[in-house]
Each structure stands twice: as structure tokens, then as C-alpha cells.
Amino acid sequence: MLQKVKASVKKIIFFDLHRWINSKNLAKKTPSDFKNYLSAALMIKNEAEYLPEWLEYHLLVGVDKFYIYDNDSTDRLKDVLRPYIEAGIAEYIYYPKKQSQTYMCNDAIKKSSR
After folding, report:
1. Residue 41: burial class (beta carbons within 10 Å; 0-12, 13-18, 19+)
2. Beta bridge partners of 65
3. What is the pLDDT of residue 20?
4. Tens-digit pLDDT profile for residues 46-73
5. C-alpha 15: how far from its chain's center?
6. What does residue 90 show for φ and ψ, rounded to 5 degrees?
7. Statement: the pTM of the whole predicted model exceeds 0.85
8. How many angstroms separate the Cα of 96 from the Cα of each of 8, 12, 70, 93, 101?
9. How many CB atoms are closer than 10 A to CB 111?
10. Which residue has the higher pLDDT, 40 or 28?
11. Cα–Cα distance measured from residue 25 to residue 18, given in angstroms and rounded to the nearest whole number
């Protein structure tokens, strides 16, 4: 049953993403039409201790923008991210909701293509 639910969620995410891409004519855009070469979106909770190392590694391999969705962390995540936010490398979004991955994916795509 759980596998069927996961498959359904993936189809919904894909459909919503596909519909949004088509509505914005993104299929016709080139990489230079986007403000960042490679962006990463992640939703995390209480992972601040490991985040700087993770960010630095991904900066080395080519990611130039991070959209970090905080799912109600209690470990001073925003304080850890402050240097990255001030440098324009990371964008912090507080979003303490359950089952919000679809929102995160859609919102990150919209933010990255402005």
C-alpha cells in the first residue's frame, strides 16, 4: 500500500512540475535564461551541525544556489546558514509543515527561474 501511495505522490509531483514547466515555456529556455547554473533545494530538520560541510562540498562540485526549507528545526539552523545567506549563496525558507515536499519542489523551481 505504501508503495502505491509513494508512486501516486511521485506522479502528482511530476504532473504539477510538468504542467508548470509547460505554462512557463521552460522547455524552450536555455541555461543562460536562469539566474543560477545549478541550484539545490532541500528540506531539513535539525541537521545544522552537518550543513556547512554539506554546503561546502556541493559548492565545490558546482552548485551555486541553495534553497533550504527549514521544517521546524530547533538547532539554530538559520544562525549556521547566516554566512551563506549574506553571501547570496543560500536562501532560507521556514516552512514547518508535514508532507510539504511538493510545495518545496514547486517553490524552488519558481524561485530559481525568475
Report:
1. buried
2. 39
3. 58
4. 999 999 999 999 999 999 999 999 988 9
5. 18
6. -125, 145
7. no
8. 23, 21, 7, 10, 11
9. 16
10. 40
11. 10
